[in-house]
Amino acid sequence: MINWKESYDIGVETIDCQHRQLLVKLNEFFEACTNQKGKEQIEETLRFLKEYTLEHFSSEEQLMVDIDFPELAEHQKTHAEFVQTVLELEETVKTKGVSVLSTIKLNRTLTDWLLNHISKCDQLIGDCIAAKGKAV
C-alpha cells in the first residue's frame, strides 16, 4: 500500500485529484493481490487505466500547452509509452488469460508510474507553473 505524500502534489487541484484517484485504484489492486484476488481485479484495473489515461493525459497535456511547458513533446512520449504498455498488457490478458506474471507486471508498471513519473516528471509541471508565477 502506498500513501499519498504532499510531495506528489504539483499544485494544480484537477491534476492532483486525478493522481490521487490513480493511487486509490493502485492500492485497490495491491490489496486484491495481497488477498490472492489480483487475477480477478486485473481486468477492472486495466479498464480503469484506459479511461483514466484518456481523461488525465488530455487534461495534463492541455495544461502543459497552456503554460508553454518546455518538455511537452518528451512528456507526451512518456504518456504514449504508458498507454502502449497498458494496451499490450490488456491484449496479453485477453489472448493468454490472466497470469501471475501479468499481475506482477501491472503492479510494477503502476508503482513505477506513481513513484517515478508523477513524483518526478509531473513535478516539473508544477515547478514550471511556480517559476512563471501563473495561476492555473
Structural features:
Hemerythrin, mainly alpha, metal-binding, Four Helix Bundle (Hemerythrin (Met), subunit A), 136 residues
Write the layout of secondary structure elements.
Blueprint: H1 13-34, H2 38-66, H3 72-96, H4 100-132
Helix pairs in contact: 1-2, 1-4, 2-3, 2-4, 3-4
Question: What is this structure, in a nutshell?
Answer:
The chain has 136 residues and is mainly α. The chain is built from 4 helices and no strands.
Would you kindly provide a written description of the structure presented here, covering whatever features stand out?
The chain has 136 residues and is an all-alpha fold. It has one domain: Four Helix Bundle (Hemerythrin (Met), subunit A) (Up-down Bundle). The chain contains four helices and no strands. Helix 2 packs parallel to helix 4 and helix 3 packs antiparallel against helix 4. The radius of gyration is 16 Å and the shape is elongated. The two termini are 31 Å apart. The relative contact order is 0.18.
CATH structural class: Mainly Alpha
Distinct helical segment count: 4
Tell me the radius of gyration. 16 Å
Number of domains: 1
| Overall body shape | elongated
Global structural class: mainly alpha
CATH superfamily: Hemerythrin-like
β content, as a range? under 5%
